[in-house]
Design brief:
The protein is of the alpha/beta class and 307 residues long. It is 43% helix and 16% strand. Keywords: Acyltransferase, Transferase.
Length: 307
């Protein structure tokens, strides 16, 4: 069995996700290490109000996802590949052992602050479902003619496209998409315009935070959803993490590549189950499971059966 761990991005956060880690020894240890390193009580980030802050959300997701990956490893469930969506690239890199946990937390805190300070309000992302990429691009051009500028951010499937921009422009584009018979077109629970040129300047600024951070060659294969390929040299992963906030996500292409590499089990690390649905769409013959929807005993039994 060839196993992929997927790590979710923003929009999957939920109050209580860090407190759930306290049921596990590994979870308690990693929460305590985060407290010590950040000099704050990270469990205080675990409320709906606190998670409205971009820095808090990114830190909480990183702690939660990395901790659950380590909990799986404590139950002898090891990944062959790790793949993160947006902020999920950071717990993926930590899990691949090319970046230390504490160093990752420092980078994520700065990333969140840079993005929040650049766009404190009025910007977001939206998902358009049921239209092709070509059609969405045509609608973006049509909206731009009315001074509503938006950008393709994520190509999740051939008919699930995520766009970024200011809220008024996104609402205008969603209305056009629904008129064009999109199945759904709606804003996401994300308060920054990720994966587009609007964050290019912040990505360049973020590079300064990496100057003193050591990177090692991964011991588990790291996959970039922006480049749609596996990355081994530390310098390539370093560059991937710096610029991933401003680079387009090619999830569909990435997962198709992993299918060709023989992935037979995809486990979405908590929180959420969005990536599981995307994996099922692009890898129908692969077993795709969201940890949020499964218990560890059943997952251990599955791995023993097919491992």
């Amino acid at each position: 069995m060839t196993t992929l761990f997927t790590f979710p991005g923003q929009g999957t956060q939920k109050a209580g996700m860090l407190h759930s880690l306290m049921a596990f020894e590994v979870g308690r240890e990693l929460v305590e290490r985060a407290n010590d390193h950040l000099h704050e009580d990270v469990l205080a980030l675990d409320t709906r109000e606190a998670l409205s802050n971009n820095r808090n959300t990114q830190l909480a997701l990183t702690i939660c996802s990395y901790a659950y990956a380590e909990i799986l490893r404590a139950h002898a469930i090891e990944p062959d590949y790790v793949l993160g969506l947006s902020i999920g690239a950071f717990p993926a890199a930590i899990s691949a052992r090319c970046l230390r946990y504490e160093h990752g937390l420092s980078l994520v805190a700065q990333r969140g602050e840079l993005m929040a300070n650049a766009y404190p309000e009025g910007y977001s992302m939206a998902a358009i479902i049921g239209l092709s990429l070509t059609t969405v691009q045509e609608l973006i051009e049509q909206a731009a003619q009315a001074n509503h500028v938006t950008y393709i951010a994520n190509i999740n499937t051939p008919t699930q496209i995520v766009v970024s921009g200011n809220n008024l422009a996104l609402e205008y584009l969603c209305a056009l998409a629904l008129q064009k018979q999109a199945t759904r077109a709606h804003r996401l629970n994300v308060n920054v315009p990720s994966h587009c040129a609007l964050l290019a300047e912040q990505a360049e600024q973020f590079a300064d935070a990496f100057t003193a951070i050591p990177f090692d060659r991964p011991t588990t294969t790291y996959v970039s959803a922006n480049a749609a390929r596996v990355l081994y040299p530390p310098a390539r992963i370093h560059d991937d993490l710096i610029h991933n906030m401003a680079r387009q996500v090619h999830w569909w292409e990435t997962v198709a590549m992993l299918k060709e590499r023989g992935v037979t089990l995809a486990i979405e690390i908590s929180p959420g189950s969005v990536l599981t649905g995307l994996c099922k769409a692009s890898m129908p013959d692969t077993i795709s499971i969201a940890l949020d929807n499964e218990n560890l005993s059943n997952l251990e039994a599955l791995v023993r059966r097919y491992g």
